[in-house]
């Protein structure tokens, strides 16, 4: 990357992570807001392809990527999971992944041999946007060559869904959530014997044009290629440019029910950061491994030689939740060793274009233990190589020597969640220098999306043990860095996830169950 590349994204990371006052300055009320968009993106006048609602209640390997497999992947990938009834009616629909205030800015597109589609989750249908097989165009745009994928998913950020409340800050939320959804699609695909290749880097213009998307209002954020088995994917030896590839397809402009604000007008900073991140030449694509924070020089707890029990992913996804509006733990016994065993392996098995082949997900895991059986309370850095937990040396310990580790995090979190009886807190720590030095301004997306992918895995690990996993963005990053003992400013806590058993709170909430074939 050239000097200066990445400065726009870097500055936005500083504001959106480390200057909450500035990031929230333009925040709007969610109530009686004239810019509130429809709950779902609705296309009009396009052919629809219903998907079978008779999907298996348990996920298993498929022999062929047929209609049932596609329906299963979409249903457990991004389908509705629960409907909530409250007096305001503001957060009614929950899905298999979390979304801030259930706004679900991220849209999912499905590119199959027969055409390009939008996934209409409430009707569980595909809406045809363009005929024909365009998988090779997406291979070209991601700089890859080799066998065609069975399907290619494209995740976009429909910013107006989130920006009507959060304005420019919607860019952080949508990129985090594109990561969460990528993480879930990858998990579900793997459980079905499929392999997903995550592309943060692609030529934006041809991808957006293929789907008929406006790059300012709803850009593609992630391209996810799905193969039936381990496909031998190579880097395309021919460098391609966005303009040349975009010229090979006609524009489309399918009719969408108008809704929400114009992001390019209402969110100047978001628009600037997003435009700076666009890629025009596959020759600029890169991969590298981040620099991890030093492992603290403390006596580690060695990972006990146990295997976490296999999970029934479909059931766990149906049960996954973030807890009620007011996050309030219920005192409970949770097996810490089982959680630890899962976290020790949680960064493996993902194929992403941001890191060299075989490298783990590029975020470090910090575990703050409140009440878990088998692990003493305290804050630990998980060593990816050994699985050991190293007690951290808190930078705030001089002033706060008597404060326990959970309270240290509570003090740097905006008041809201209840921390009493918290089982654990997970922080995902990224390397901003790696992101911006390797990917330029695209680094903002890459950091948040990789972190989101891992955050979803943490939420699934929590749900497997009956805990809610609550992603909370409302924390002071500098304070968290001190509590985690992070000395180098390059290392940033990108996600904070509260883990605890919770009750329903004041909600009436009913599951939206797949019909099930057995
Ligand atoms: C990116 C992101 C940021 C979030 N930030 C906060 C937050 O700052 N405070 C909070 O209480 N909840 C936060 N949440 C939690 C969501 O409101 C919650 O996930 C949503 O209501 C969906 O609930 P469910 O996962 O139970 O379906 C956040 C969720 C996401 C995905």
Major sheet summary line: 8 strands, mixed
With strands numbered from the N-terminus, the spatial order across the biggest sheet is 1-6-5-4-8-10-9-12
Assign the CATH class of the largest domain.
Alpha Beta
**Quaternary organisation of the protein chains:** single chain
The amount of helix comes to 25-40%
Question: What small molecules accompany the polymer chains?
Answer: flavin mononucleotide
How many DSSP-defined strands? 19
Overall, the morphology is globular
Percent in strands:
15-25%
Name the CATH superfamily classification of the largest domain. NADH Oxidase
CATH topology descriptor of the largest domain: NADH Oxidase
Number of domains: 2
* CATH architecture classification name of the largest domain: 3-Layer(aba) Sandwich
Number of helices: 16
Topology at a glance:
Layout: H1 7-18, H2 20-23, E1 48-50, H3 67-78, E2 80-85, E3 93-95, E4 106-112, E5 115-120, E6 125-131, H4 135-141, E7 144-145, E8 151-157, H5 160-166, H6 170-191, E9 195-199, H7 204-211, E10 220-227, E11 234-235, H8 242-246, H9 263-266, H10 268-276, H11 313-319, H12 336-345, E12 351-352, E13 364-369, E14 378-382, E15 389-391, H13 405-411, E16 424-431, H14 432-439, H15 443-464, E17 468-471, H16 477-484, E18 491-500, E19 508-511
Helix pairs in contact: 3-6, 5-6, 6-15, 14-15
